[in-house]
Amino acid sequence: MTGTTAVKRIVVISSGLSTPSSTRQLADRLAADAASILRERGVEVEVQTFELRDLAHDITNNLLLGFAPPKLEAALEAVASADGLIAVSPIFTTSYAGLFKSFIDVIDTQALTDLPVLLGATGGTPRHSLAIDYAMRPLFTYLHAIPVTTGVYAATSDWGDGGDGVRSLPDRIFRGAKEFADLVERTDRSGLVNDPFALDRSGGHLIGGLAGE
């Protein structure tokens, strides 16, 4: 068992655009279950949540100029030093939100290596539930993160009782959170070195992408 002296840091990113947001609600419930499971095992946990809509202007400026203002830099450093990431996006036109992808684009390419990730998504219809597996999961796998097997999608109707024999949303949240907690508990990323000043793109990107992508 992980010793109680090792604090596990979980970072939550939510890219919901409205207030209140079902995306934020799902993110909070995933984080609460994961933290509860770890604490029951004697693991100390710190949870830090970032609403990407609050960082939207900073993210855009970073994409254009290659410079992260203090609030965005704090979020990027939190992700790079986390023991686990919970990433939740609304689904628009069958894929994750543009704001969600833009944030991922400004993360250092090595920051997610070996990072356990619990994926969540929200939408108005159950028809978009596969977006986690065909859109979000490949994105994080490409960045060498470790997405847990269970992704949690919540349609508008899922906030009810989950009848008709379908596994209820609380059950799916708990299952995903447990898989995530299992990985976070045994993952050690202390040896990873992430250089926040490293560039993986050509210098032209810093002046609006005039050179190659």
Automatic annotation (TrEMBL):
GO molecular function: oxidoreductase activity
Highest rank taxon of the organism: Bacteria
Keywords attached to this entry: Flavoprotein, FMN, Oxidoreductase
Classification via Pfam families: FMN_red (PF03358)
Ranges for domain NADPH-dependent FMN reductase-like: 9-159
Alphabetical list of NCBIfam families matching this protein: LLM_duo_CE1759 (TIGR04037)
Protein name stated in the entry: NADPH-dependent FMN reductase
